[in-house]
Amino acid sequence: MNGALVKVLCLRNDIILKQTFPLLRFKTSGENPKCSAGGIVLSTSRYYKTKPTHGIGRYKHLVKVLEPKKKKAKVEVRPINLGTDYEYGVLNIHLTAYDMALTENYAQYVHNLCNHLSIKVEESYAMPTKTMEVLRLQDQGNKMFLDSVLTTHERVVQISGLSATFAEIFLEIIQSNLPEGVKLSVKEHSEEDFKGRFKARPELEELIAKLN
Predict the structure, then answer these.
(1) Residue 30 confidence (pLDDT)
(2) Which of 45-49, 142-146, 147-151 has the highest mean pLDDT?
(3) Taking CA 4 as the corner, what is the angle to CA 3 and CA 8, rounded to the nearest 5 degrees?
(4) Is the CA virtual torsion 44, 50, 54, 58 positive or negative?
(5) Which of 24, 21, 190 has the alpha carbon at shortest distance from 94?
């Protein structure tokens, strides 16, 4: 039994020596060694280091270049067109109501009507919402108490180039289709109307006045 075990150990040592001898020979000669395991030859040299990658892994050319954000320019008053003897200049159609949905829908109707009748619409915008508190006097005593809060919504459709002969017909069409609860007014555009689009900031105005 001991003799058989000694033979197996001797064979194993011979196999290990046969496998390590070529590796030592390659190291001494300066060549790239190769390892063999189970009859498969494995190369330890890394050839990919000397070869170009041809752009593998590069993705920057696929990413869309984002343009830098532009600073918002200060809103300035545009020159107002005063019109001629036969044609109106810039007109503002003001629509006011307590119901926001009703005001918005009728403003869309007026805008679409102007497009259908080939009347140029400069712009359509909303004015700042106004709130009004309704106070009620008690039956007995002089003390007032809050009864309700009314919110007024306003939309403006700005048009230009309306002929004097067609203006009366156009206003009659708008008035005949005016829904209940909506107030209509038409007037020429002015610089005050432009400033009225923006909410007042008294604190900022006070600071600017102090700096000046």
Answers:
(1) 46
(2) 147-151
(3) 120
(4) positive
(5) 190
The span from the CA of 41 to the CA of 37, in Å, is 7
Note the Cα 123 to chain centre separation in Å: 21
Which amino acid is it at 167? A
* C-alpha–C-alpha distance, residues 172 and 113, integer Å: 13
Alpha helix (H) ranges present in 88-158?
Answer: 100-116
Helices (H), the chain: 2-29, 100-116, 164-176, 191-195, 202-211
pTM above 0.70, yes or no: no
Residue 203 CA, chain-centre distance (Å), reads 30
Helix, strand, coil percent values for the chain (each to nearest 5): 35, 25, 35
Do residues 127 and 155 make contact, with C-beta atoms less than 8 angstroms apart? yes
How far is 97 from 106, CA to CA, in rounded Å?
10
CB atoms within 10 A of CB 174: 19
Average pLDDT score, the chain: 75
Q: Is 130 helix (H, G, I), strand (E, B) or coil?
A: strand
d(CA 196, CA 185): 16
Which tokens in the block code for residue 148? 């309700």
Query: DSSP letter at 190?
Result: -
- Beta bridge partners, 43, equal 34
**Cα distance between residue 106 and residue 181, in whole Å:** 11
